[in-house]
Design goal:
The structure is a homodimer of 259-residue chains.
Chain A: H1 3-16, H2 31-38, E1 43-58, E2 71-76, H3 82-90, E3 95-109, H4 112-124, E4 131-134, E5 140-145, E6 150-153, E7 155-156, E8 159-160, H5 164-204, H6 209-212, H7 224-228, H8 234-237
Biased composition (Basic and acidic residues) (chains A, B): 224-233
Catalytic activity (chains A, B): 4-demethyl-7-[(3S)-3-amino-3-carboxypropyl]wyosine(37) in tRNA(Phe) + S-adenosyl-L-methionine = 7-[(3S)-3-amino-3-carboxypropyl]wyosine(37) in tRNA(Phe) + S-adenosyl-L-homocysteine + H(+)
Protein name (chains A, B): tRNA wybutosine-synthesizing protein 3 homolog
Chain lengths: 259, 259
């Protein structure tokens, strides 16, 4: 079968459909990025969230329950103030949890190589838990995932377990993560533009293709020993602390502030 | 180049090296799984962590600092008791954070198809943020990632921001996540065994290959509309709440308790 034709068909079908999201539109902070991606013949976005702070009234004992049964007490894509949280928590009956969910984006890619380039852009921009999915019909999707979350139980059986002072402190942390998340989205947009320029250049000058590969040039190893090491123990897993777990792409440079 | 030969070389090199992890050995709860994977010619593990509760004395204002500067106040792969946490927090100077880091595993795969099968096993077992990385030399690694974390700021500039009662409650949540995490590792082991049996069967009976593909049979769509929808807004991203963000593999069945 002609993969390119099938991809074009998928893309047309996807982009022609109504936005089925609750909000019904792309989040403000990622509109430009989504547009840039959808303007490329080799990509289209299938879902996105710019990042948000939310409070869920979840199941008892810290276990989340099905979304359909799970009550959202608060959702915001903007910095959050204490009073909104206090008001929201008054409505809790179960175990309410405050979460910061960072930027997430799913991009269907024409072929694996396109996904590889986008994956490198994502990791270089600080989205170190990004990964590729290849479905049965060759449907290739890059999930851009950050590691920059927060998940804080706040109430048990509807009863608040923390002080207002703590909520103030927590929101300060959450709002700063929101700020950093925004910076990373901007970084991703800029890295993507450069990568697309290089790719275009390499297509017009195939002889410099290798040089033009953003993902494969000028990489720093964060930890050469580790990169070579067996590391079946915790060593590589310790990367999680720094919000990344990418021994598979240890040749990809990362940002100090992520580490 | 002969990909299989190169893969065998990589595997021999990796498994012959000393375990460079701080612990110097594979975590008890994943030894069997790691052994099962490394016994397959198409796989080898490059890092693993069974899951752990840790307290980090991080940077001020909720931003983590480089691992080398980041002080571990407590790390345990077993359920955690309040007194240990209280003692650990007394040593905090900065912003201490309690984290539950679930199971993470990195598996280098001989070829993309091997990674696809393992990816489906991982997602079917509840590890819904798993993803594939393909490096420049075709190095193909599946990162098995859960979504079952916890990240809770506990102290600011060395000062405890929560009550002991809250810490008790929080540890109850963390320990339950640890339990659920163990169950998922067992589920992953069993799903993997079945997938390997099917793959072996399909190799001996190529005519039933399609049927034998664990990743491509008996799948339920969690949400067909969503799967087909543009969903560039929050709809798909809402999956995050349930700990998954896999529109790219929406044809893969998931476990109710994950949703």
């Amino acid at each position: 079968m002609d993969r390119s034709a099938e991809f074009r068909r998928w893309k047309a079908q996807c982009l022609s459909k109504a936005d089925l999201s609750r909000k019904g539109s792309v989040d403000e902070d990622v509109v430009e990025l989504v547009q840039l991606l959808n303007a490329q013949e080799q990509f289209f976005t299938t879902s996105s969230c710019a990042g948000r702070i939310l409070i869920l009234d979840g199941g008892i004992n810290g276990f989340e329950i099905q979304k359909k049964n799970c009550c959202w007490l608060l959702v915001t894509h903007k910095p959050c103030v204490k009073d909104d949280v206090i008001v929201a928590l008054k409505k809790a009956n179960g175990d309410a949890v405050l979460k910061f969910e960072p930027f997430v984006l799913h991009v269907q890619c024409r072929q694996l190589q396109d996904a590889q380039i986008l994956h490198s852009v994502a990791v270089d921009s600080g989205f170190r838990n990004s990964g590729i999915t290849v479905g049965k019909r060759g449907k290739t999707v890059l999930a851009v995932r950050s590691t920059h979350g927060l998940e804080v139980p706040l109430s048990h059986k509807g009863q608040l377990m923390v002080t207002e002072e703590y909520i103030d402190f927590l929101l300060n942390v959450a709002n700063q993560k929101m700020e950093e998340n925004k910076k990373r989205i901007g970084r991703f947009y800029n890295c993507l533009q450069r990568a697309l320029e290089r790719a275009a250049l390499s297509n017009s000058h195939p002889q410099i293709k290798e040089k033009s590969h953003p993902s494969y040039t000028h990489k720093k190893k964060r930890n050469p020993e580790k990169a070579d090491g067996k590391g079946t123990g915790e060593e590589n897993a310790e990367e999680l602390e720094n919000g990344g777990d990418h021994p598979g792409i240890d040749d990809v440079s990362t940002f100090p502030e992520d580490a």
